[in-house]
Design goal:
The protein is mainly alpha-helical. It has a single domain, classed as Hotdog Thioesterase (Thiol Ester Dehydrase, Chain A). Helices cover about 20% and strands about 5% of the residues. It has a two-stranded antiparallel ribbon with strand order 1-2. The protein is elongated. About 10% of the residues have low confidence.
């Protein structure tokens, strides 16, 4: 399920990749608060966009080449509820992940 499209993406050349998400109706429970497993769906859609930005879309990696992308560990700390219409960087989650290749400074994804 990939119901969100990034509202902004910047090239990785010297800058971090940024993909913003908006909390949609499908992410929320009847009270309009994000149902916690939906955060992981949002995160996964960002990961898919990042790989596509690198020129390696999951449709090619997983579908055609049969190369999987397992998640070994995933943790979350919930500090405030996210609500319908929130955007990442505001009340919605701001997801950052350092990514580093040998001999290069880290990028945050």
């Amino acid at each position: 399920m990939h119901s969100d499209t990034p509202t902004q993406a910047t090239p990785l050349a010297g800058r971090p990749f940024v993909a913003r998400r908006v909390v949609r109706f499908a992410h929320c429970d009847p009270a309009g608060i994000v149902f916690f497993p939906r955060y992981y769906e949002l995160l996964n859609s960002v990961v898919e966009d990042w790989w596509e930005h690198l020129g390696l879309p999951w449709t090619g990696l997983i579908g055609q080449r049969r190369i999987g992308m397992p998640t070994a560990q995933l943790d979350a700390r919930f500090v405030a509820p996210s609500r319908l219409g929130d955007q990442s960087g505001g009340a919605a989650p701001d997801l950052r992940r350092p990514v580093q290749q040998p001999h290069n400074p880290p990028l945050f994804v």
